[in-house]
Amino acid sequence: MIFKVTYQPNTQQVPTRENTQTLYVEAASKGEARELIAKYTPYNVEFVQELSPAHLAYEQESNPDFEVSVF
Known about the structure:
- This protein has helices spanning 30-40, 53-62; strands spanning 2-8, 21-26, 44-50, 68-69.
- 8% of the residues are buried.
- It has 71 residues and is of the alpha+beta class.
- The protein has one domain: Ubiquitin-like (UB roll) (Roll), CATH 3.10.20.
- It is globular.
- It contains two helices and four strands; from the N terminus they run E-E-H-E-H-E.
- The protein has a four-stranded mixed β-sheet with strand order 3-1-2-4, covered by helices on one side.
- This is DNA-directed RNA polymerase subunit epsilon.
- Belongs to the RNA polymerase subunit epsilon family.
- It catalyses: RNA(n) + a ribonucleoside 5'-triphosphate = RNA(n+1) + diphosphate.
- InterPro entries: RpoY.
- One of its GO terms (molecular function) is DNA binding.
């Protein structure tokens, strides 16, 4: 499954909407996606969302920089 993860790049600052960034990760569950990000990045995860096939297609079409992160 592909998950869309919204996060703050700095864990030392108060989260603000303007600093929220997105990455996509392949994992078996939301929990595994969170574990991968916690293990391999310094990011403060805000939200993990499983993408349906239609939503995934939309993200790929609307985001020219779309790529699934590999850890």
